[in-house]
Each structure stands twice: as C-alpha cells, then as structure tokens.
Write a structure and sequence with these properties.
The protein is an alpha+beta fold. It has one domain (24-85, 116-321, 372-584): Sandwich (Jelly Rolls). The protein is 17% helix and 13% strand. It has helices at 79-89, 103-106, 256-262, 324-329, 346-363, 376-391, 441-461, 468-471, 501-505, 566-572, and strands spanning 71-72, 131-132, 203-204, 306-309, 315-318, 410-414, 417-419, 424-426, 479-485, 491-494, 510-516, 518-524, 533-537, 542-545, 553-560, 578-584. The strands form five sheets. Strands 1-14-11-16-9-6 form a six-stranded antiparallel sheet, covered by helices on one side. A four-stranded antiparallel sheet has the order 10-15-12-13, with no helix packed on it. Strand 12 (518-524) and strand 13 form a beta hairpin. The longest helix has 21 residues, at 441-461. It is globular and about 55 Å long. The model is unreliable at 1-45, 47-110, 112-223, 225-328 and 343-371 (pLDDT under 50). The structure holds 2-oxoglutaric acid and fe (ii) ion (FE2). 2-oxoglutaric acid binds next to strand 9, strand 15 and strand 16.
C-alpha cells in the first residue's frame, strides 16, 4: 500500500513509522523512505501531504482554530469592470494608503488597462455579514514544518503547527464576484458536486494584529500600489450586508468516491510535449464526479506510476524515475508547439465555452456560473510570460527530492527559489544553480489589484469595520511560485509557512492565480482531507488567503481535465493542465 505524499505528491514508498506517522519526505510523489524526525526540516513543507489524518496532530495543540476567514475570491470579467464598479461605489477612495507604488512599476504594461464593467449584484448570497473571528494571526515558533507544499495529512510531533498559539479556522471565506453570480452554497449539494461550498464566509477579528505595512513593503513589489480604479462590489447580496457568513460547507464529503475511482488508474506514459496534440480530447468530464478519472492519453506518468490505496482512502503514487535532472536537461515548455492540432474557429470556441458553462449550470440548482476575476487577455499574457520564463534559466523543472521522490507538478520560482529539499527560500536553485527570474511587473500589478479589490470588498461588506489591515494586509510579493499541474497533478494539504517569521506574523496574504484547467481546491482548519472544504478554482480565479486565514491548510485535490478556456488554449497553445501562481512576501 502506498500513501499520498506531500504537497501534491503521492508516494508509494512512504514508510509508515512505528508511531503511525509517515515520513514527510514523502511529500508529493515517490516519497522517500527516510523516517521523519522532529528535526527534519522537510517535514510537512510545501507539497508534502500524506492524506491521512494525523494522530497527535499539531492542530490539537492550537488554542484557537485557524481560520480561512480571509480566503477571498475576487472575480470579474476584466479588471476594468471592477474599476468602473468601484468608481461608482466610491470604494476606491477608502484606502488611499494602499497600492502606492512607483509609477515606474506600472511601466507600459496593460494587464490592467482594459475597461470593463462590474456587476456586483451577482455576489454570492452568503456574502455580506461578518462572523467574529476567534483569534489573531498565528505566531509560529517553528518555521520548518508544514511549510508550503509539504502537506502531510497528518501532523508530526514537533511540527510547526504544534506551536501555534492560535488555530486557523475556515469559518469565513469571501468570494467576491462581479458580473455574474458565483455558485450558491447548497446549490450543488444534492449531486455531490464539488461546486458546493461556503462561497462567501467572512469574519472579522478585532484582536487581529495590525500588520505593520511599512513603506519598505513597496520596494519589492506593487501589491499595495495606488489604484484609483479599485473595486467595490456592490449589491453583493442585493445590497444586504447583514447576511450571515456561512461557515458550513456541504462539500466536505464530496468526491470521496473519486479517490477510489482514481485508485488503480495507471495512465500510459506519454511525452511531455505531445499534450497539445490532444487538445480536442473530449473526456467525459463531470465536474461533480470525475468518473472517468484521467484518460491515459493525457496522463503525465512521470508523476504517476503506481497508485495504491493508502490509509483513510487516500492515494499514494509511486514514482519509478527521478526526473529532476532529466527535467532540467529538457526545459519544460508550458506552451509547446502544436502538432497537428485542429484550431477552433471563434464561433466554435464560444460554443464550447457555453457548453462548459451549461455543464455547471446543470449541476448547480441555482444555475450560477463563476466568473473569472481577470479576463482571458490577462490569462493569455500570464501564460505567455510564464512560458518564456519557464524555458529560460531557473524555469520550469520537475522538483524532486534526493531520494527520487518527485513533486506532483512542474515548478518555477520567481524572485526567490523555494527548495523542496529544505523547505526554505534561497537565491538560487540547488539542483542547477539557476537564479530565479524576477517577478514581472505585470504580475505585481495583478497582485496589487487583487489585494486592493479584495480589501474594497471587505470594507463594502464589513460595515463599521475599520481594521482592514488586519483583515487583509497589503503585501508586496518578492516570491512567486508557479506550479503547473498536469491532468493528474495534485498538491496535498499543507500550510504556506516557509516565508519569514515577520511575514507570517503579519499574516501577509498569499495571492493565488489559477489559469487553465479547473481544480478542486481544498482548505480547512486542519490537515484533514475528509473534512476539508472545497472550492473549484477556475481559470481566471484569484484566491487570497491572508490575515487570520494565512495559515489555512490547503491543497489541490484534483484537476478537471479539459476545462480550460478554449480561447486560452488557442491563443497560447498551453498544455493541458493548470497553471497556478502563488505570490508571497518573504
Ligand atoms: O495550486 C494551487 O492552487 C495551490 C498552490 C499552493 O498551495 C502552493 O504552491 O503552495
Ligand atoms: Fe500552498
């Protein structure tokens, strides 16, 4: 039997320790056999995540529950839509101290220049009320365990979480949507689809520490840059801000069968760069139930060789090859040249898009469609930038471990390198000495916009609440970790906590962009997959977890193949799969 590994990885070789814990070196794929020790810095870092519930989990030591109260999901058809809506609402004048950045940072990029309209009326009904938060930001004493990507679904003695004074909670999740409604909780519960979720749960906590947003925070980025067009989503719930945030998720038990479905699937091996030749694959995708699992044709077997059912019905995936060096030798092309792919004409693209929407509509009783926060134009640019950077020094590679375990994704770090071996950030990549490319200014802009929009939303729905800095601190990213998930990619539950102690203590947000195929994103107070809440992140979605939710456990349970916007694929030749960018401030 093998076990799901850490941060998106799964291992068929994860040793079960005598005490019932798994080595956290077995974090994604092909886990190591090194027994875990409290001194092991690899423990539960980014991507490490055996999906079994721990005994003596660190969380049990929490005095307070961790919160995901600040998982924001701003959405809009395009940045300008938000701008216009904000101007009308006047919300963008609420935080003049935010987003002030050198004009030069804006350069001549136009990612945020498009003009659109915002329809905040379509916000989730649950948005609008606040729920008292129980605790302040975490103050970690042990930065080594349970870091980014390392996400054993159990905790280890001595893990970082053991030292938490507070326990994050997933009671509140904001899901800012504009233009179109987001999925309404309960609308998907009947069929067990993963769309059902606590869309708009919010909370405030007067006890939350006010982050010290110093001018220096702007030096590395523009996350708090001045953007007069910032958004305010009005009429979130027909203008009623008294709605109670829903802290409940009926999706907790969703997809439990999916795990079993995937067990035993052993996709045939394929070449990395032939994915686009199958762009027209029409898998029997069911958003709610991935009955078809991953078609052999699109499986990336570099990441998946052996699947076995692990404890608590979680998967482990063994890897038969250590592709680290191989990947380095052969750059991972996010957008490989097409080989005989039939191009879709615009009208057909529209049709396909509509079909996808219809699929969701058929699932959700309320017929809601999740609108992307940024538009296809931005997505295309992001992909192209990532593709170019990914082919150069420090570009995409197959991260892995000394023992041969591979992460269940391709990765590229910008700004600083995150080393899966040590769960630490550095100036270069140990595997090849490459220095990470800098974070493009366009990305800084988008991050700043996302934070600004989210803050505007918080203020909008949090009448009387002044502590916006505690709710969602400004952040100037100096780290961007780009992950590319193939159809079989995963990322186990983990906490992002390899950033500096100061960053963690200030609860500076992690801003996550999703592009390409949709993904089932798990999050929760604990490393508990079975009880984790779920949200489908689609292309164009932005998810932010900061403030008291900074330490939520989160991960990617699955990728929904063939769900990427066709227009995106058309314009970029992006591989099948999902590109995720997470921005942090060290
Ligand atoms: O892909 C995602 O949505 C999450 C990525 C993540 O959690 C990470 O890179 O630490
Ligand atoms: Fe993460």
């Amino acid at each position: 039997m093998s076990r799901q590994n850490t941060r998106g990885g799964f291992s068929g070789r994860s040793p079960l320790r005598p005490d019932g814990y798994y080595s956290h070196r077995n974090r994604h794929v092909g886990g190591a056999s090194k027994p875990f020790s409290n001194e092991d810095r690899m423990s539960q870092g980014r991507g490490k995540h055996p999906h079994h519930i721990s005994h003596g989990s660190g969380s049990k030591h929490f005095k307070d529950k961790p919160t995901s109260n600040f998982v924001y999901r701003p959405k809009k058809t395009s940045p300008d839509v938000i701008s216009n809506s904000l101007e009308a609402e006047g919300s963008n004048t609420k935080h003049p101290e935010c987003f002030e950045a050198p004009d030069s940072l804006y350069g001549n990029y136009d990612l945020l220049s498009s003009s659109t309209q915002s329809d905040s009326k379509n916000m989730h009904p649950d948005v609008g009320a606040s729920k008292p938060l129980a605790h302040d930001c975490f103050r970690t004493k042990d930065r080594t365990s349970q870091g980014r990507g390392k996400c054993s679904h159990h905790t280890f003695p001595g893990s970082r979480s053991n030292h938490f004074n507070d326990k994050p909670t997933s009671d509140s999740v904001y899901r800012l949507a504009t233009h179109l409604p987001v999925v309404i909780p309960n609308s998907l519960g009947a069929d067990g689809s993963s769309m059902k979720q606590p869309e708009c749960i919010g909370a405030s906590d007067s006890k939350t520490q006010l982050p010290d947003v110093s001018p220096n925070s702007l030096e590395a980025g523009v996350s708090c840059m001045k953007q007069p067009e910032c958004i305010v989503v009005s009429d979130l719930v027909t203008g009623d801000v008294s709605h109670s945030f829903s802290g409940h998720s009926d999706s907790k038990n969703m997809h439990l069968d999916e795990i079993g479905i995937q067990i035993g699937e052993t996709p045939e091996k394929k070449e990395e760069d032939d994915a686009t030749s199958k762009l027209n694959f029409s898998g029997k995708l069911k958003v709610g139930h991935m009955q078809e699992s991953v078609p052999p044709a699109i499986a990336d077997t570099k990441d998946q060789v052996s699947l076995e059912e692990g404890p608590n019905n979680f998967l482990s995936i063994g890897v038969s090859e250590n592709s680290v060096q191989q990947a380095i030798d052969k750059p991972f092309d996010l957008c490989p040249p097409k080989k005989g792919t039939v191009m879709l004409n615009p009208s057909l693209l529209v049709t396909n898009r509509q079909k996808r929407n219809d699929l969701k509509l058929s699932i959700g009783a309320k017929s809601n469609y999740i609108e992307a926060w940024y538009g296809i134009t931005e997505e295309v640019k992001i992909v192209k930038i990532c593709r170019d950077l990914g082919l150069g020094p420090g570009g995409f590679y197959q991260p892995g471990y000394r023992d041969g375990a591979n992460l269940y994704l391709k990765m590229m770090c910008l700004g600083k390198n995150w080393d899966p071996e040590t769960s630490q950030y550095g100036t270069s990549r140990p595997t090849d000495g490459a220095v990470p490319p800098i974070i493009p200014v366009e990305f800084h802009q988008l991050v700043g916009k996302a934070i600004q929009d989210s803050r505007a939303l918080i203020e909008k729905i949090s009448t009387g609440r002044k502590d916006i800095e505690a709710e969602l601190p400004c952040m100037s990213p100096d780290i961007c970790i780009a992950n590319f998930y193939s159809a079989t990619g995963k990322l186990g539950l983990h906490q992002d906590k390899d950033e500096s102690q100061e960053s963690i203590d200030k609860c500076l947000p992690v801003v996550s962009f999703s592009i390409g195929d949709s993904a089932e994103f798990l999050y929760g107070d604990l490393r508990d997959v079975a009880n984790a809440k779920k949200v489908i992140l689609e292309s164009g979605d932005v998810l932010i977890f900061g403030g008291k939710s900074r330490r939520i456990f989160h991960g990617v349970e699955k990728i929904f193949p063939d769900t990427a916007p066709k227009s995106l694929l058309e314009e970029t030749s992006m591989r099948r799969g999902r590109l995720n960018l997470t921005f942090r401030q060290y």
